[in-house]
Write a structure and sequence with these properties.
This protein is α/β, with parallel strands linked by helices. It has one domain: Aldolase class I (TIM Barrel). 44% of the residues lie in helices and 9% in strands. It has 14 helices and eight strands. Strands 7-6-5-4-3-2-1-8 form an eight-stranded parallel beta sheet. Helix 2 packs across helix 12, helix 4 packs antiparallel against helix 14 and helix 8 packs parallel to helix 10. It is globular. The protein starts with 30 loop residues before the first helix and ends in a 12-residue tail after the last helix.
Length: 335
């Protein structure tokens, strides 16, 4: 391990919850701006299909990108059998996501590397907040009738308020996908405005459920309606849909974020979630962010990866970089 050359990744030491940009205030509803959106699916798919051949990083550069990916993970447990013990272990892993001997071998042991957040159901928010007390790691709560988003609107709003009161700093809401499929964009906008207001100071990630929307044009329209209503992040999926995060979804949503930034000057974050379990997947999403939006969108205030098992594979890749050997997954426990 001592033969490994130290790497110098641009790992930020500031708190992941710090925002270096103004929060998106939203705009008045503009039906024409949404109706005008059209996406060429075949062109989008061709674009992302060329990504692995055009973009690659190896050795210490790959290790640096993967360390950055760790900082952008929303370490997540959303199971029906979640317990306080499981959440405590997850929070411990969030504070020390990579084994210290690996960090020391790479020459970055002095950097306080943590995950971007811990994401749980509402009933585990207080448990996670207490477990993370004294750290800068925020707790994110899934809300608004997650994962379907079909409970009565007043209950969805109350659910947000309860999670914020319990200490959640980020709220992952789900939109009613049926409204998008029916072309009721104003209704999506109005609900999103109500969710944003209920969140108060907590940042809101709007889950559009891209895999349920049928077309990439609907993905673009849902993204724009949510940003127009004040979303801080747009997120692909709940992780419960038959189709979750994909690179075409990411490409379209990132281009909507770019269009919004060009139109208003405000930066919106992006979070792919669901089915992201391998380090190479994380790298591909990072490449999309870099190509489509630029360097600022590689930081955790504008980019998150919704995942649970991804961290294990990233640690295995980092150990391979250090030792030249792949280790068993049980050497990198999630807790």
């Amino acid at each position: 391990m001592s033969n490994v050359q130290p790497i110098t990744p641009r790992v930020r030491e500031a708190a992941p919850s710090d925002r270096g940009h103004a929060r998106n205030p939203g705009l008045a509803f503009d039906a024409d701006a949404i109706d005008s959106l059209k996406i060429n699916r075949s062109a989008a798919e061709r674009r992302v299909a060329t990504l692995p051949g055009r973009r690659t990083v190896k050795k210490e550069w790959q290790a640096a990108w993967l360390l950055k990916a760790v900082q952008c993970i929303d370490l997540t447990t959303l199971s029906g059998d979640d317990t306080p013990g499981r959440v405590h272990r997850l929070c411990a892993k969030a504070q020390r996501p990579v084994r210290e001997d690996l960090l020391e071998a790479m020459g970055v042991g002095n950097l306080e590397i943590t995950t971007g957040a811990v994401c749980v159901y509402h009933n585990m928010v207080e448990t996670a907040v207490k477990a993370l007390e004294g750290t800068h790691i925020p707790v994110a709560a899934v809300s608004t009738g997650f994962p379907a988003g079909l409970s009565p609107l007043p209950l969805r709003i109350k659910e947000i308020e309860y999670s914020v009161a319990a200490g959640a700093k980020e709220i992952d809401i789900v939109i009613d996908r049926g409204l998008i499929l029916g072309g009721h964009y104003r209704a999506v906008y109005d609900e999103m405005k109500a969710f944003r207001e209920a969140c108060g100071p907590a940042h809101v990630k709007a889950i559009i459920g891209a895999g349920d929307l049928g077309t990439l044009t609907n993905v673009a329209k849902a993204s724009m309606a949510c940003m127009m209503a004040g979303a801080d992040f747009i997120k692909t999926s709940t992780g419960k849909e038959p189709v979750n995060a994909t690179l075409p979804f990411a490409l379209v949503m990132c281009r909507m974020i770019r269009a919004w930034h060009e139109m208003t000057g405000y930066r919106i974050g992006f979070k792919p979630a669901g089915g992201i379990s391998q380090a190479k997947d994380a790298l591909n999403y990072q490449f999309v962010m870099k190509e489509e939006l630029g360097r600022p969108w590689l930081e955790p205030d504008l980019f998150r990866l919704g995942a649970s098992s991804l961290l294990t594979d990233i640690e295995r890749q980092l150990e391979h970089f250090v030792s030249g050997r792949y280790s068993a997954a049980h050497r990198h426990p999630m807790g």
